[in-house]
Amino acid sequence: MSSIEQQRVILITGANKGIGFAVVKKLVQQPSINSNDIILLGSRDLKRGQDALKELGSPSNVHVLQLDTSSKESIARATNEIKQKYGGYLDVIINNAGITPKDKTVQAARETFATNYYGIKILNEHLIPLLRENGRVVNVSSRVGALTLHGISKDLQEKYTSSTLTTEQLDQLVEDFISAVDSDTIEAAGYTKEMPFLPYGVSKAALNALTRIEARQWSSAKKIFVYAVCPGYCSTDMSKHAPDSRPPELGADSILYVVNTDYNKLENGAFYRDGVQLPQIYTNDAEAREAIKRMKKLDS
Q1: Cβ–Cβ contacts within 10 Å for residue 53, how many?
Q2: Which carries the bigger pLDDT value, residue 84 or residue 32?
Q3: Of 141, 211, 213, 240, which sits with the fewest C-beta atoms within 10 Å of its C-beta?
Q4: What is the pTM of this model?
Q5: Domains, the chain, ranges and CATH?
Q6: Given pLDDT bands bounded at 50, 70 and 90, which one contains residue 282?
Q7: Which is catalytic among the residues 160, 191, 200, 257?
Q8: Whole-angstrom Cα distance, residue 147 to residue 140?
Q9: Catalytic residue status for 200
Q10: What is the DSSP track for 261-289?
Q11: In angstroms, what CA-CA distances link 267 with 86, 128, 277, 278, 279?
Q12: Cα three-residue angle 111-135-269, rounded to 5 degrees
């Protein structure tokens, strides 16, 4: 086996700052796992990616990959670059890039889903075929998705968590939600206006559902493992570095747990935080109410 075949090629999107940057930093600082790893630091803005590389000390095994996950053209270009420069294969895809909408307009909802759901879906469609056997995909999600599902109609809950849900059906759920935002018929559609950051929460609920679909699809077609991970409420630009947030390094640990743990100890398609498997829907009513209270403070 040649040296190139012994290397893992790991792509992290949105890696020029925040949790994604912390993931890259930990991979660089933990050479005991595999000192040969090639790490692709995905960044929408090339200069910010290059600045992040300098901040890391420009390690020889880290390479900046310009990648805007909300753009099909950017995803296609990045895919071609991986094929041309890195042997055309990957071992780990960490879909970390994500946004939280700043307002409650339908345009903001569309932008949220373009990055948090469709961007990841399209990126995975392009890149999962490049994964080698035992490859892993980590879709960085949030417990807000599970909390959002807790407050929706039983009919919608069943649809989002169905073991036979297809990507076409999931796309329709997403489009129906965006239409409900546009027509101000959220409650009639089965959602609740009481939920803060609703488009963000629905995008993460959809991502958790997509993770299960992708795990079913790729475990049968190819030995690939797909997980959703909540990094926790971390101190990043997205959280405005809130005083009660936790260090992004802990979020990185949560992600790397499913990257480095033996796949026999994990459930393919499942949702994890800090090494603990979480349900797709919040099951504790009192805990859900407290979580919503905290989120409303953030949204005020």
Answers
A1: 19
A2: 84
A3: 240
A4: 0.92
A5: 3-299 (3.40.50.720)
A6: confident
A7: 200
A8: 16
A9: yes
A10: S-GGGS-TT-EEETTEEE-SS---HHHHH
A11: 29, 18, 8, 11, 12
A12: 60
